[in-house]
Design brief:
- The chain is α/β, with parallel strands linked by helices.
- The protein has one domain: Alpha-Beta Barrel (TIM Barrel).
- The chain is built from twelve helices and ten strands.
- Strands 3-4-5-6-7-8-9-10 form an eight-stranded parallel beta sheet. Strands 1-2 form a two-stranded antiparallel sheet.
């Protein structure tokens, strides 16, 4: 099915196309399988540890603790400025590199083709590993190196340079992050190595089900950042935390689980990979408990009705770029947009 047809006609409340898989072992997170492989390390775990805005000085311990506790997926990025700590945690965990999925991201200042390889090599060195499992273009926006001024580097040229990273053995997969439909089309039109995954904001308050379904149609994994919605302290203080939402509190009680566990379980059952961030052992353990919760079709329908189309992260106005065109939750021009990374 073509891009326009797939995106236009899939409905917001369509039946989910993926199901949560059972745990590979009693100590490891479940995985979403690749169609072309049955080997465990060729599959992205559907649950991981996020590291954006993780407290400096606490990241290494959080990563070590999470991996020792069963996590097998860590989401990092150059702009998070903590890849060295992530690497320390991976090493200290004692778990072999080939059993851990590591993702990082290309920042906006490194989009020029001649800078792409240098950027991934720097991330790999900071992480103290030999290769990445997944390398994403963090935003479809190029900056002049060393500035926040817009650069005219084409996202297509950046993607073609990303493909060379796979051929060079620096990353096993490449993908995108925060792309609008028009940006994805540009990549799919030229790609000889298709995007393995797309990381973007999606949670119960911004479900974007038709967009998620489009990715399933195109066989592109969806990685959901901010899967717990408005629990990030940098987000809109006028939107109550989902942890206090009456609907979710009632649903969590019926599952004998916490709200956080229930929300994360929903994210996984709909087929997305969730990457909640925490540096607290209590919450790292609590979040991991989400992998065992299941929902009925009726419950999934009730959750679908809770979509509020709240987009919590949109730095487009600050950058002078119209991000997320054609997607739910884009603030009107007169509304204040979040300028966080």
């Amino acid at each position: 099915m073509g891009f326009v047809k797939a995106f236009s006609f899939l409905t917001v409340v369509s039946v989910v196309t993926y199901t949560l898989l059972t745990m590979a072992t009693s100590s490891e997170a479940p995985v979403l399988p690749l169609s072309n492989s049955t080997q465990s390390h060729n599959e992205i775990p559907s649950f991981g540890l996020g590291t954006w805005l993780a407290d400096k000085g606490k990241v290494a311990h959080a990563v070590e603790y999470a991996i020792k506790g069963g996590y097998r997926h860590v989401d990092a990025a150059a702009i998070y400025r903590n890849e060295d700590e992530v690497g320390e945690g991976i090493k200290a965990s004692g778990v072999s590199r080939d059993k851990i999925w590591v993702t990082s991201k290309l920042w906006n200042t490194d989009h020029r083709p001649e800078l792409v390889r240098k950027a991934i090599e720097k991330s790999i060195a900071s992480l103290a590993i030999e290769y990445l499992d997944l390398y994403l273009i963090h935003w479809p926006v190029a900056f002049v190196p060393g500035t926040k001024e817009l650069d005219d580097t084409s996202i297509v040229d950046t993607w073609l340079a990303m493909e060379e990273l796979v051929r060079a053995g620096l990353t096993r997969h490449i993908g995108i992050s925060n792309f609008a439909p028009k940006d994805i089309k540009k990549i799919l039109d030229v790609a000889t190595i298709r995007p393995y995954a797309h990381e973007f904001e999606t949670h119960p308050y911004l479900q974007q089900q038709s967009f998620v379904d489009f990715h399933a149609e195109e066989k592109i994994k969806v990685i959901a950042y901010s899967p717990l919605a408005n629990t990030n302290p940098t987000y809109n203080p006028d939107i109550p935390s989902i942890l206090h939402d009456a609907f979710w509190k009632k649903l969590a009680e019926s599952k004998n689980a916490t709200v956080a566990q229930t929300v994360l379980a929903w994210g996984q059952q709909r087929g997305t990979v969730v990457i909640p961030k925490s540096t607290h052992e209590k919450y790292i353990d609590e979040n991991f408990g989400s992998t065992e919760i299941k929902f009925t079709d009726q419950e999934l329908a009730e959750v679908a009705a809770q979509d509020k189309k709240y987009r919590l992260l949109n730095p487009g106005e600050g950058w002078g770029v119209d991000l997320f065109e054609g997607l739910d939750g884009v603030p009107k021009k007169e509304e204040l947009r979040n300028e966080d990374l």
